[in-house]
Design brief:
Distance between the termini of chain B: 50 Å
Shape of chain A: flat
Oligomer: heterodimer
Order of helices and strands of chain B: HHHHHHHHHH
Largest sheet of chain B: none
Largest interface: A-B, 64 and 71 residues
Shape of chain B: flat
Largest sheet of chain A: none
Number of helices of chain B: 10
Helix content of chain A: over 70%
Structural class of chain A: mainly alpha
Chain lengths: ~290, ~220
């Protein structure tokens, strides 16, 4: 669509475009240069502020913090996928009461901010005598919130399949469970994989919320190292380093999503179904 | 019930701050996100690249990290001093506009090609085509995803509580100082958010009905 928005530029338009390109570069370069200048001027780029990265102890601690983030992500992702599968099945159940309960739970956890969920487990737990470590609070929050979103994704994926698929399976004499596990779910997972992975990217980013419930993950460590007087309080460098790590991790996951999407388009087995409308607004969850 | 009634002086103003935070950053990110989407479909490759880079960077950064940068690191640069509330608005806007941009761009792709072709045939320029023909139709078709992005942002405002903004997410902290039951208090906060999300969903449905394009 984007290339229908304008004609192929003629000589005059080309000059104008070049002018705008130069202007764009100048504006962005000016903003970046100003920020870099402020960095230099306030001494953020002096060697002293970056020295901390050279200490072996700091490097191991940084690695451990990264592992803590990945641990929360891995456990949260697996549990969220299971939670999503269970409640998607619940929402597609033939029994009205199972549908009702599943719908209620999914809608409930989707409407509550993830941070409030983590607070509920971490600060609310001790009130009723259950004290959870921060790690458990983070993983539980991630599981319930992202699991509910994934449940909607799975459900939308199954409902987007052509009706003929399940009708044919029923006509062959399969039971509901067989229709689901042998016919519908394998196809749905194929078509929903990109959406599922992008939801996992969201989950990975949300592990940073652990920072607010004192889970010692990457961001928590960045703040900690940034407040160390011995290293000259390098909060700006440590934030930059951690941001680079987060962006790299998320881009890796996104790249995986793209590879999967491309492979899917190539494979002949894949049924070309229209991606359901609803998935887009679910996947847009920030 | 007591926890809510005894602390109405907390719940009222704090939720009001949440709503203010949501409205200001919502409008700001809608505007900024639409501009970004315009950049991403513009005829100038450099502008497209700028838009893409911004969106890729911000979409892959945790919002909490944006907050940490703006609240703890940014003041060291001594540019302009931001209050905690303003910093929260800036963080939410920077982050959410990247998502809004993607939604608007997907909306632009749903507008039939003939619309832009007809506009070009009439001799309209790129800005005229985008502003008068394509965007008005695109925005109508993306009301549902746009609203769910905004609902996501409403939920994200709670992160500001960790950065000294007195909004709904921070109620817990004050309750614990007063020695009230935190679990019940947090459940009331959760209920508040469920109500706000429900209101936004109702608005979404009515806008969808009023604005849906018959095709």
């Amino acid at each position: 669509m984007s290339n229908v928005l304008f004609d192929i530029p003629g000589p005059k338009a080309r000059v104008r475009h070049r002018l705008m390109a130069v202007l764009g570069i100048v504006v962005v370069a000016a903003i970046l240069a100003y920020i870099v200048y402020r960095f230099i001027d306030s001494g953020q780029f002096t060697a002293r502020k970056w020295e901390w990265l050279q200490y072996a102890q700091v490097q191991t601690d940084l690695l451990n913090a990264l592992l803590a983030t990945l641990k929360a992500f891995a456990l949260g992702a697996v549990l969220a996928l299971v939670f999503g599968a269970v409640f998607a099945a619940g929402r597609l159940s033939d029994h009205a009461w199972v549908r009702g309960i599943s719908t209620f739970i999914v809608e409930f956890f989707r409407a509550i901010p993830l941070l409030i969920l983590m607070f509920l487990f971490y600060y609310g737990g001790p009130v009723v005598g259950v004290s959870l470590p921060p790690f458990a609070a983070v993983v539980l929050g991630l599981t319930l919130y992202n699991g509910s979103v994934l449940a909607e994704v799975f459900r939308a994926g199954i409902q987007a399949l052509p009706r003929g698929q399940s009708e044919a399976a029923y006509a062959l004499g399969m039971r509901k469970t067989q229709v689901m596990t042998l016919v519908l779910i394998p196809q749905a997972i194929r078509s929903m994989l990109p959406t599922i992975i992008s939801q996992l990217v969201v989950l990975l980013k949300d592990t940073a919320l652990g920072f607010l419930v004192t889970y010692p993950e990457l961001l928590y460590y960045a703040r900690y190292i940034g407040s160390q007087g011995a290293f000259g309080r390098p909060i700006v460098p440590s934030t930059i380093v951690v941001a680079a790590i987060y962006i790299a991790l998320c881009l890796l996951l996104t790249a995986l999503a793209n590879v999967v999407e491309k492979r899917q388009r190539r494979s002949k087995k894949h049924l070309d179904t229209q991606p359901p409308k609803t998935t887009e607004d679910i996947a847009g969850v920030v | 019930m007591d926890v809510l009634l005894d602390n109405m002086d907390l719940y009222g103003p704090f939720f009001w701050t949440t709503i203010k935070l949501f409205l200001i950053s919502g409008v700001a990110s809608l505007i900024f996100g639409t501009i970004l989407a315009g950049l991403r479909v513009s005829p100038v490759p450099v502008l497209r690249a700028i838009g893409t880079t911004y969106v890729t960077l911000l979409r892959n950064t945790p919002l909490t990290l944006v907050f940490v940068f703006l609240v703890f690191a940014y003041p060291l640069l001594e540019i302009i001093e931001l209050s905690y509330f303003t910093a929260a608005v800036v963080a939410l806007t920077l982050y959410t506009s990247a998502f809004i941009c993607e939604v608007v761009r997907s909306g632009i792709n749903t507008v039939p090609v003939g619309q832009a072709e007809a506009a070009r045939a009439l001799g309209l320029t790129f800005t005229q085509i985008l502003g008068q023909i394509v965007l008005p139709q695109a925005l109508r078709s993306v009301v549902p995803p746009l609203m769910s992005t905004l609902i996501g942002m409403l939920k994200n405002t709670t992160i500001a509580a960790g950065f000294s903004v007195t909004e709904a997410g921070a109620i817990r902290q004050y309750l614990s100082e007063r020695g009230d039951n935190q679990l019940i208090g947090l459940l009331w906060v959760a209920l508040g958010f469920i109500i706000l999300v429900a209101i936004l969903s109702v608005i979404q449905r009515s806008l969808e009905k009023r604005w849906s394009v018959a095709r």
